[in-house]
Design goal:
Layout (H helix, E strand, L loop, with lengths): L5 E2 L7 H8 L11 H5 L2 E6 L5 E9 L4 E9 L8 H16 L3 E3 L7 H6 L15
Parallel strand pairs: 4-5
Antiparallel strand pairs: 1-2, 2-3, 3-4
Length: 131
Amino acid sequence: MNHEIVINLPLEPHEVPTLRELVGWEGRHSDYPILFERCNFWAGLRDEKNELIAFGYIAGMGLQHGYMEDIIVHPQHQRKGIGQALVKKLLEEADRFGLDIVTLTYASKHTAFYSASGFVPCPGGVWRRKD
């Protein structure tokens, strides 16, 4: 499979929530298409059947710093280099866009993946609103 990751790939509002659910995440259907209006840029990949199999984005104010989020690869296409290609494409676009810093949060089991992608592990914190 060709790993032709496309920046701002045209997407239907249901495609990312469906992919999120395939990897076991909450679909967050109400986030789409609003997310596309609010993030700096996104990237995606379709398979030979034109189905979305990879997605990720960088959000922020468009100044010095961006935040990478939702790096998703369809379970049937994982461990084939697609995730690495997706992160690389997003970081190339961040550089072209003029971002100096890109941060993200991830589960510790993904440290090797993100370290291999050029991220330096560092301490941080997460705040969540209580329901």
